[in-house]
């Protein structure tokens, strides 16, 4: 019998179409790029299906052909040539691997390029054209994605991470590959049913009501052998595309009525959660009042909408400026992206006192640059912060000090994950009264042990955080909260 063959690859990023930080091939190479056969042993968020193929298919006698795996840090629109080049790279690898019995892809699902509102739909359709109708195509998605008819039509199996934060990306990749193998072996006939919730919302699963909702999805998957997989596509509010919004996705073993009913029921339940899923985000002034009322530090102030993990630049100054206006001192802020200011600091040297303009360069909404006479207190080449078991490169970084305020300037755009972003520069984060970080959710676990209090700050910008005022141009139907009752309006 001919040895069965799977082609597996990964092409992923999360596109904030409102961001000024455009994405090109260098953005992919700077973030993560593994040529065929060069993927490391540890999975990345979106390449986990490739590792699951190694674990589950190779030992069962399959030939696993690994293609390119690449990821760009979330940013703005992808340069058209870059997308087409990466897509065609994967397609030519697939062509060379044919005939194949299965295609397994690690996607993100919120990738938008110049001229392509639905990159993943385009990619999946071209894969389908190559392999024909009989070869199963399976892909893993981040729930912060867009579920388009083109994707559902081209793929046999789509599975998204259930958790946000995305702690289960490897577990869901294994689910995907198990189901994909059963499909290729003719044991199941997956059929995808979807329901459009007509909403967009932030849906953290580390708290209720989403925590219980995810538990229910696991129970349903165990309750009936016809229910193969259930995913919530949260949607991604910073991607202005026609299909933007939350959707339920139910995969059954060829049980269309059951799938449709379940997708609708779960989707209606999800819709009833709108407006009460996120932790309280406070206005800047309310947040600073609350911070100053604390008698002990450190108080962590999380600037949730200037988080590079959502595709913005991460050089915003709104929160810092508000603190400076109040004369707050004993403040440490990090990370703040400003490679030019870092260069100036390195050139001036350690302990130099220099006039420095930093931050606020990428766009008009993130606050004006700050001008200050600063002391260069720390310089670290290729600094790194921790994030769980991994190290996140901050690039060449500088610690500047002025008016009782310490700022960590970085050359890499990176979210604030861990207090080590301060300590690597020589700042003791536990000794500061106020810590300002740029992150929506991922900072939380690592800062809890040192924080006296944690406050989520809604500075209103630069991330397009209010769907009602974001001014979408491509959205193709009414959704909440842009309209109050989207199910009964045109
Ligand atoms: Zn996500």
From TrEMBL:
Domain Microcystin LR degradation protein MlrC C-terminal: 301-474
Cofactor note: Binds 1 zinc ion per subunit.
InterPro entries documented for this protein: MlrC, MlrC_C, MlrC_N
UniProt keyword terms in alphabetical order: Hydrolase, Metal-binding, Metalloprotease, Protease
Family assignment from sequence similarity: Belongs to the peptidase M81 family.
Domain of life, source organism: Bacteria
Entry protein name: Microcystinase C
Keyword Protein biosynthesis: no
UniProt cofactor(s): Zn(2+)
Domain (Microcystin LR degradation protein MlrC N-terminal) ranges: 7-291
One GO-annotated biological process of the protein: proteolysis
One protein family per Pfam: MlrC_C
Statement: the UniProt record of this protein carries the keyword Metal-binding: yes
Task of the protein: Involved in peptidolytic degradation of cyclic heptapeptide hepatotoxin microcystin (MC).
GO MF annotation, one: metallopeptidase activity
């Amino acid at each position: 019998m001919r040895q069965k063959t799977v082609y597996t690859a990964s092409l992923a990023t999360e596109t904030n179409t409102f961001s000024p930080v455009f994405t090109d091939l260098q953005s992919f190479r700077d973030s993560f790029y593994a040529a065929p056969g060069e993927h490391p042993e540890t999975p990345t968020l979106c390449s986990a299906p490739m590792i699951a193929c190694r674990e589950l298919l190779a030992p069962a006698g399959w030939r696993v052909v690994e293609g390119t795996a690449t990821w760009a840090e979330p940013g703005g629109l992808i340069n058209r040539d870059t997308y087409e080049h990466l897509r065609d790279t994967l397609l030519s690898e697939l062509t060379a691997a044919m005939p194949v019995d299965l295609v397994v892809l690690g996607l993100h699902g919120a990738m938008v390029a110049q001229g392509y509102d639905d990159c993943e739909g385009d990619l999946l359709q071209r894969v389908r054209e190559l392999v024909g109708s009989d070869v199963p195509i399976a892909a893993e998605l981040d729930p912060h994605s867009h579920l388009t008819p083109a994707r559902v039509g081209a793929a046999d199996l789509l599975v998204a991470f259930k958790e946000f934060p995305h702690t289960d990306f490897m577990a869901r990749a294994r689910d995907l590959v198990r189901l994909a193998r059963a499909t290729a072996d003719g044991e199941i006939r997956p059929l995808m049913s979807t329901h459009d919730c007509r909403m967009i919302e932030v849906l953290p699963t580390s708290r209720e009501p989403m925590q219980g909702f995810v538990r229910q999805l696991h129970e349903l998957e165990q309750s009936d052998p016809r229910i193969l997989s259930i995913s919530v596509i949260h949607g991604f509010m910073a991607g202005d595309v026609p299909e933007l919004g939350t959707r339920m996705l139910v995969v059954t073993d060829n049980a269309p009525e059951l799938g449709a009913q379940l997708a609708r029921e779960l989707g209606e339940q999800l819709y009833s959660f709108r407006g009460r899923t996120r932790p309280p985000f406070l206005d800047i002034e309310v947040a600073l009042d609350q911070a100053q009322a604390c008698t002990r530090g450190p108080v962590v102030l999380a600037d949730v909408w200037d988080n590079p993990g959502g595709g913005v630049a991460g050089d915003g100054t709104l929160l810092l400026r508000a603190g400076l206006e109040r004369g707050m001192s004993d403040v440490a802020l990090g990370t703040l992206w400003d490679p030019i200011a870092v260069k100036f600091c390195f050139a001036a040297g350690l302990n130099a006192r220099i006039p420095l303009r930093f931050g606020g360069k990428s766009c008009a909404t993130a606050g004006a640059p700050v001008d200050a006479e600063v002391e260069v207190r720390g310089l670290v080449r290729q600094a790194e912060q921790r994030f769980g078991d991994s190290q996140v490169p901050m690039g060449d970084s500088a610690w500047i000090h002025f008016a009782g305020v310490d700022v960590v300037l970085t050359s890499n755009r990176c979210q604030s994950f861990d207090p080590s972003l301060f300590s690597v520069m020589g700042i003791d984060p536990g000794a500061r009264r106020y810590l300002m970080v740029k992150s929506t959710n991922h900072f939380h676990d690592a800062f809890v042990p040192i924080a006296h209090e944690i406050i989520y700050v809604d500075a209103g910008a630069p991330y397009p955080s209010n769907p009602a005022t974001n001014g979408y141009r491509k959205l193709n139907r009414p959704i909440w909260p842009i309209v109050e009752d989207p199910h009964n309006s045109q």
